[in-house]
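Notebook p. 47: complex prediction with BES.
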Amino acid sequence: MQAVIRYLKQNQARFIDELCEYIRFPSVSAQPQHRQDLHACAKWVANHCRRIGLEARLCPTLGHPIIVARTPRTKGAGARRPRFVVYGHYDVQPPEPFELWKSPPFEPRIQGRSLFGRGACDNKGQNLAHLKAVEAYLKTGTELPCDITFVIEGEEEVGSSSLASFLKKNRDELRCEAIVISDTGMPTPKHPALTYSLRGIAAFEITLHGPSRDLHSGIFGGTVDNPAMALCQLIGKLRDKNGRVAIPGFYDDVQSLSAFERKQLRRFPFNTSSYRKFVGAPKLFGERGYTPIEQRSARPTLEINGLTSGYQGEGSKTIVPAWARVKITTRLVPNQTPTKVIKLVTQHLKRLCPPTARIEIKSGHGAEPYLVSPTGPQAQAALRAIKAAFQREPVLMREGGSIPIINDFKKILRADALLIGLSLPDDNAHSPNEKFDLDCFAKGQLMSAHLWQELSQT
Ligand code: BES
Ligand code: MN
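Predicted complex, structure tokens below:
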């Protein structure tokens, strides 16, 4: 282990250069014009894996390629060694709006201990940290106590639609004791964390169609319904005055928080007023009767993610628009399911649509919520590794984001996930000026190095 730790220390500068190289690929999975960039990025990852001593292959899919890279298997070894899968993603969220970036999103920039660039923390920096830990073992000739297979995909940010069937097809090869994922966060640099729950998601795109084309609002306005107005009225009905989602049946399957868990969540380092300042909203808002921590991790929500209609250019254009569109996602908690929520939302919207407009509803990606007990031996091993690397007592937490594939891992490979996030709340994931903290990068590598020792003893 000493050689591994020394190797990590001595090579930080190069690791940072490599992370910059990785970030330079504009691997935006949501945008079709970046298809080639995703492919190039995947190729870079596969080559990188080979260079550090892994056996890697690039697996084409209907969407973006998946990289599978394994530590060399010791031949003829009698007893089967424990095996773990590390999951990560090389795709990133769209960088827009460009004008809010202090430096271009795909031209990495270091300032102090922060490395700025789209994908820096979500998720390139975090999966590279694990690759660097394994590199340290392989390059120092230190024997790994387990076999490790990396699965790094390019569709996480758009719902991981290719990966589930890939897991089914490669079930035997990927069989493992647990999945290790660093794609979540920690509350402060002094509070490294193990996450034991994530919210699920169901996405929708709803269009109200009005007249067959944009009409002169002076000549026709007053005789036809305005789809933008109708849509606003419709979506205005989806939330009540207590901040609850006003869709019949929406809360039916929601598991309520136990008194014990609520008490645990209250111990969490959180300051409401600095949180409000950080998000920059005039006042916080959320479901009545719950704390912000509960609202954002253990309660379901419905959010508008985008709203479009009519003329968006400069100046005015007097029209009744032909259509109006809203993008909505709901975040789900145990035991809600995307299938049922999609049905409830769709039925309710159809009922609410006035006869003066035609509604079109597309449901997009969905993911089930995730919850696992943090008391098992693997979780305890992970907590020990986190503590060894960060020299701090780790906290247990629930998070509000989603990792769509996590329940497929559970169902297909029958393995739990260990969510060890390295991202900080001010890393600006999905926002302009995304960054990754270089100390988190270094400590993440160290955590990964310890993790294989700890996990292999369980
Ligand atoms: N890394 C996030 C998920 C995450 C973030 C979990 C913070 C917990 C805390 C992941 O890359 C992500 O953004 N997922 C998307 C999935 C969606 C597009 C299907 C999300 O949560 O919005
Ligand atoms: Mn993300």
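Notes: The first strand starts at residue 55 and ends at 59. The chain has a mean pLDDT of 96.
Next step: compare against the earlier run before touching the bench.
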